[in-house]
Amino acid sequence: MKSIKQLAEKNDLKNVITAFIKLIGLAKLSKKVNFKRKSVVSLTAVVSWLLATKFARHSLYRAQAAKEFTIRTARNVLNDGRINWQRLLCLAAKQLIARLKPVIDRRRRLALIVDDTLMSRSCSQKTELLAKVYDHNLQKFLTGYRGLTLGWSDANTFLPVNFALMSTGKPHNLVGHPAVSNDQRSVAGKRRCQAQRPMNTITLELIDQALANGVPAQYVLFDSWFSSPKMFWQLKQRKLDGVGMLKQSIKIYYRYRGRAYGVKDLYQRLAASNRKRKEHYLYSCVVEAHYQDHRFPLKLVFVTKRGNKSRYLVLATTQIQLQPAEIIQLYGRRWQIETYFKAAKQYLALNKSQIQDYDGLCGYIAVTGLTYDLLAWLERQNKDDRTIGDLFYLMNTALPDIKFLDALVYLIAVLQKVKKDINKQVAQTLANFLSYLPAGIRKVLRRQV
Asked: Can you give the pTM of this predicted structure?
C-alpha cells in the first residue's frame, strides 16, 4: 500500500471524519450493534459529531450543536442501553485491521494486549455502579471505575478493540446507585452484570468477543495482575499463547527437574548453578505449570529490572519455541496500551466525562476508542513519524499560531522574490517544502503570499 499523502486543502476535519466513517462502514454497522431510533437522526451523524467534539476539546454540555439534531439527542444516543458499544468498537477495529492486513509481514506476530486503568470520579456520588477503587500508584482507595481495555497490535499500530467498565461485586465498596437492571436478555443488563464480576473472567470474555467478531491474533500480552497458570491454560484452550509477567508469589509453584519451586526459589536455584548470565537477560528455563488436573509447559525468562540491578522480572509464555530475546521483545509491545491510556486521558478526556448514566459512560469510552482509531489510522498513512499528540493538535482548529505564520509568510515571500536567481533544484526543494506543510498553514500562505 502506498503512503497516503499529507492532508490536502480540501481534507479538513469534517472530511477526514467522514472518510473514516466510510472506511469502517459505520452505516452498515448500525444495525449490527442494535441501534434503533424512530427519528431521522442516524448513528453515523451522531458519532461524526462526537468525534468532531473530541477534537474541538469541548464537553457535551459546551459543544456546538449540530444542524440536524440537538446536544440532548446526542446524549440520548449515548445513554441508549440497547446499543452494543463493545461490538461497535470490535467491528470498527476489524475493518481497520482488514485494511492493514495486506501490508503486514506474514512473519509479524499479531497480539492482543489487555490492561486496565483507573477512571477516577471524585466529584460524583450518584453515578450508577460507582465504586471504591484501589489506586496502586497512590496506595489508597479512590472513587471511580476500572477501565478494562483489550487492544490489538502488529508492533506498529495499536488499536483499541474491546472494553468493559468495571465496578465492584462487593456491596460495601459500592458508592453510587446499584445496577438498574441485571436482566441477561438485554445488552444493558449483560453490561452491568459484567461490571460486577472478577476482572480475569471478563478479560477472557472480551477476548472471546474479539475473536468472534473476526479480530486476528496469535498472542495475548498482559502484566502480572492478570498472570496465573489458570490464565495461561485458558488462553491455550482458545489456541492463543499468553506472554505475561509472573507474580513472585510463594503460593504458586512450578515444577523444574522433578522438584516444585516458587519463582524466587527457582531463581536462587539457577543462580547457584554454573549457568552464565546472558547479555540481555539473566536466565531462561522451561518449567511445568499446573491448573487443576492439567499440566503444561511454560518458558520462563529472568530479566534484570531496569534501574535496579539487584531485582529481576520474570516473563513467561506457553510458546516454548520462542527464544528469550523474542519473548522480551514481544512483551515489550505491551507498553503500547499504556501509551493509549496516556493519549486517551491527556488528549481525548477519557477520565473527564460529565455523563452520569452507566450506559452513557460505556458509549463515551467507545467514542474515545474510535477517535484513537482515527488518529492511529492517520499516523499509519502519513509519511513522517508523527505522534498521536501531534496529529491531535493538527486537527484541532482552535490552536493557530499567528506569530509563526507571519514569520513563515515573510520567509516564503523573500524566497519567491529571489526565485529567478536560484537554480531549479532549490526551486524544487521549495515546492516540496510547501507541499509538506499542514493544510491550515498552506491556506494562510496562499491568501497572503
From this structure: 0.81
